[in-house]
Amino acid sequence: MEFYSILKNDLNSAIRETLLKEHVSLDIQLNETKKEFEGHTTFVVFPLVKQVGKAPEVIGETIGKWLMENSTVVASYNVVKGFLNISLKDSFWIEAFAKIQEETYFSQRKSTGEKVLVEYSSPNTNKPLHLGHIRNILLGWSVSKILQFEGNEVITTQVINDRGIAICKSMLAWKKWGNGATPASSGIKGDHFVGDYYVKFEQEFVKEYQVFAESEAGAKLFESQKKENQEQSEFFKAFKNKYFNEISPLGAEARQMLLDWEAGDENTIQLWKQMNGWVYDGFDKTYETLGVSFDSVYYESDTYLLGKKVVDEGLTKNVFYREPDSSVWINLEDAGMDKKIVLRSDGTSVYITQDIGTAKKRYEDFGAKKMIYTVADEQDYHFKVLFEIAKRLEEPYAEGLFHLSYGMVDLPTGRMKSREGTVVEAKENAGERGELAHMSHEEQEDIFSKIGLGAIKFFIIKVQPQKRMIFDPKESVDMQGATGPYIQNAFVRIQSLFRKSETEQQTKVLSFPETLNEGEKTLIQLLMTFPEVVAAAAKQYEPSGVANYAYALAKEFHKYYHETRILGAESETLKTFRLQLSKEVALALKTSLYLLGINMPDRM
């Protein structure tokens, strides 16, 4: 919806008639006026300087004077160097608000006919979901909701890494030291339960090495291979993989378990299924708590062989080449990368082989030419290689592959136990306010959950994905900062206004006040930008823009709420207008947070 079309036409006319003297149509770009200057929108005149041959201040004054004499929407202007700051008439804002009140303004856009596949989470079954996974999940889920809102058909998916030596380490540790314990008998969430046995394996492995290091064979090996002044612990870090693969009894047992799994040994497969089942149960509880889901799930145990056929096809196209030892490679040096192995000499696949095959399988399953991979930035190079290979294989989806890369999440101190900390903080804040005392325990818990989860989600999503971040549970529930609860509180305030008012929320403004205050103009201007904010987030696969928009809108509404009489307005017309403006703000806030996976409470 183009709100500034009249102003842009006027600017074009002003430039033609006073400066260029010719019939050209310029692509007029407008920017929000900086807070320190007076005005609502700004036209940058610097690009005209060379064309017109006049100083930027002269150009700005010339255009401004023409607008004052001829434009129906311009109230005043000022020129600061090369910036023409324009203030718009109240009639402009009232007409804009009338357009915003149209039912489709905050609704999902018309179908684009395009399919987009969004992958997120994709955990390993030997480790629990941690804070880094939470950032991954929230980013992927939010991007999927934003893309869907913009009219795309979105398929959400994950690849669960459920095979390999790391999984066998957990299995072996439980078999040796579990004593038949289960998540149910121990009271530990399934993914954490299995993850504890992966840690147990590593602990026992270190103990085993220490015994070896103190033995005659170990001491002799250390003396023969250590570097100058190297400590035993430093030597172990460098020697660890060799020790695991060639000397360690535990390593031998784990490797044998992997061979048994690949051979389909009944007992090994049964144990694998049992422990993975515990993990999946734990994963599902986290997904349910976060309110996310998947349209499809792929398992590495099913997909790890998929790429072999693609590699064979690539060999016939000379995309890949075979070395004398029968290993298969691709040379990406001309693209600023290196040579990459895609099949080992024994014919077994490597990790990228699986990803090549999985991408092709997904295209065959869903026909999506756009695929978004939500994966930490430590895999940046891996995805550059994968996407380049897809291009050279001339896959139909090659141009639509995107790596949604994100940085690590740190905590100020210690560890965070799921959402426990934020929910406790939410309860304390509500207790201080005393506004939920009349509600049932179940209703209160639902509100605490929405506030606690909203705090976690918003705090993580508001940071640009590429940036490493520190998650502070206490800061995330600050009612005065850029937080989820701060935005939820703006929404709750509006609900409270309508509970106290006899005016129905559905009532449209039939008549408008003649003048608006600056707070109302600011709110309307922010509402006007909602579609472009969401469109930009979809285009860039970047939900932080939506989060920061919601905060800016909430901040302006809180200010408006404190400075303006809404229910006590001077006239019924003004009261109705202010309530309906508040209603549209609430709808924008609710829709924005919905796109971030955050629910709104009606009370706080």
Fold and architecture overview:
This protein has 604 residues and is of the alpha/beta class. Helix content is 56%, strand content 11%. The longest helix is centred in the middle third of the chain and has 25 residues, at 190-214. 37% of the residues are buried. The two termini are 35 Å apart. The protein is globular. It has a 5-stranded parallel beta sheet, sandwiched between helices. A 4-stranded antiparallel beta sheet has the order 1-2-4-3. Among the domains are: 5-88, 2-Layer Sandwich (Gyrase A, domain 2); 426-595, Orthogonal Bundle (Isoleucyl-tRNA Synthetase, Domain 1). The protein has helices spanning 5-20, 49-52, 56-70, 90-100, 131-149, 165-177, 183-186, 190-214, 216-225, 232-246, 249-263, 266-290, 300-303, 307-316, 351-366, 380-392, 420-433, 441-461, 473-476, 484-500, 518-528, 530-540, 544-563, 572-595, and strands at residues 30-32, 41-44, 74-80, 83-88, 115-119, 153-160, 296-299, 321-322, 328-331, 339-343, 370-376, 401-406, 409-410, 469-470.
CATH topology of one domain: Isoleucyl-tRNA Synthetase, Domain 1
Q: Tell me the structural class.
A: alpha/beta
Overall geometry comes to globular
Measured between the Cα atoms of the first and last residue, the distance is 35 Å
- Order of strands in the sheet with most strands: 7-6-5-11-12
Nearest-integer average pLDDT = 92
The name of the CATH superfamily of one domain reads Isoleucyl-tRNA Synthetase, Domain 1
Low-confidence parts lasting 5 or more residues at pLDDT below 50?
415-424
Tally of DSSP β-strands? 14
Radius of gyration: 30 Å
Which architecture name of one domain does CATH use? Orthogonal Bundle
Q: What percentage of amino acids are in beta strands?
A: 5-15%
- Please describe the biggest sheet, giving its number of strands, its sense, and whether it closes into a barrel: 5 strands, parallel
Q: Which range best describes the helical content: under 10%, 10-25%, 25-40%, 40-55%, 55-70% or over 70%?
A: 55-70%
Count of alpha/pi helices:
24
Return the CATH class of one domain: Mainly Alpha
